[in-house]
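Here's what a typical entry looks like (Glutamate racemase):
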Amino acid sequence: MKIGFFDSGIGGMTVLHQALRFLPNEDYLFYADTLHVPYGEKPKKEVREYIFNAVDFMANQGIKALVIACNTATSIAVDDLRQKYDFPILGIEPAVKPAVQSCEGKRKKVLVLATNLTLREEKFHNLVKSIDHHDIVESLPLPGLVEFAEKFEFREEIVVPYLREKLGALDLEEYGTVVLGCTHFPYFENSIKKVFSEGVDIISGSIGTAKNLKRILEARNQINDGTGDILFFKSGFKVEDKETLSNYNDLLVMLDRIGSLTTGV
């Protein structure tokens, strides 16, 4: 049986990339809800409907575990999804805890970059409240990065000016760690590094999610010796055209070049 990965678009590929590192012989089903991307700017009720429709589809494919490789979808639906399905469901959330632990001793702030919907959700605010005892966590929505990623626009000469504009009102020297709270954002790690000073850490929860997936499958004795095959679906339709498949494989290669983000998870 395959491991399912779900996202509104191609952001979840950054989490799948980490899973391939830790579980290279598993077979995967990756579902991108490209008809409805981006989720982060849409009403919560509408997004929940999209999520449940997609997971129903994936469950019918016979997956043994599901990774909600989308911070927005995790924040608004993961608890209810776990009530409905009997296979393990892993979400991903901003890596606020390791960021705070790293910055408290440095007298630096933490900046969480995410979508509007993720930052508005009670789940995110509860996470910050439980960890940020010295009021050092700040946040900023960057929806434009999701749009860039979905257009396969990764050129630094386009992305860096956008980042400088959105971050222009902040004193960037105040921050010790930047948390990438959207799975689309690791594609832009190099551009983000160009905006912040050299000593700033940039972290994501993707590695922790991949490690947790491996632990869960090992505990359930469900590690398979597969072929590392990946089936791609876009909003319920199997991707078979060579150009799209080539683009997806190119994304995995690009992530190899970028390297893995550090995380305390």
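The chain has two domains: 3-92+206-258, 96-203.

More examples are in the samples folder.
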